[in-house]
Amino acid sequence: MIVRCIVLLLLMAGTDLHAQEYFSRAYADVWQRNMAYSKAVAEAMPEEYYDYGPTGEAMSFRGQFLHIVDNISYLTALITGTRKDFYRKEDMGNFTKLEVIDLLDAANRYVLDLIHTSSHSLLNEDILFRDVRMTKENLFYLLRDHQAHHRAQCLVYLRIKGIPAPGYVGW
């Protein structure tokens, strides 16, 4: 019986270790593909359509990408305890296409740096986010999901405008 308990504990510890290794070993590559795909989508839209939104209540193409940057500021502050703002809100309507892409790159590189430098203990810290208990590691997955959601809206904008969309880049 004692041997079975020890084996079970070792198996459980190994599962946790495997999850830790996945994040530190593989998630950075996942994030880099996410970065490249978002940049390709942002680059595909001609600057003259950066203010385009399909309806009055929809965010513009520019607004979608700046919203991604804002969300990175918000969620990474929950991870680190310090908010990093990538631009001043009063400037958001004046950014050129290249400036929006540069802001997106800077924000995404910031997340990549956090992926590389976050300790196991930080990643495993519990946090209450919108009435859901999760670890700070989960916030990294939320960052990717949020970006994918708004990037997909931008892909629709490209198609509405008749602009070829970059091919899908996944895991």
CATH class type: Mainly Alpha
Please mark out the parts with pLDDT under 50 across 5 or more consecutive residues, or reply none. none
Count of DSSP-assigned helices: 5
Beta-strand residue percentage? under 5%
SSE ordering: HHHHEEH
Shape designation: globular
CATH architecture: Up-down Bundle
Mean pLDDT: 89
Q: Describe the sheet with the most strands.
A: 2 strands, antiparallel
Helix content: 55-70%
Separation of the first and last Cα atoms: 42 Å
Counting copies of identical and different chains, the oligomeric state is: single chain
Q: What is the fold named in CATH at topology level? A: Four Helix Bundle (Hemerythrin (Met), subunit A)
Structural class: mainly alpha
How many domain regions?
1
Q: What's the name of the CATH homologous superfamily?
A: dinb family like domain
Provide a descriptive summary of the structure in words:
This protein is mainly alpha-helical and 171 residues long. It has a single domain (28-160), classed as Up-down Bundle (Four Helix Bundle (Hemerythrin (Met), subunit A)), CATH 1.20.120. The protein has five helices and two strands; from the N terminus they run H-H-H-H-E-E-H. Strands 1-2 form a two-stranded antiparallel sheet. The longest helix is centred in the N-terminal third of the chain and has 43 residues, at 2-44.
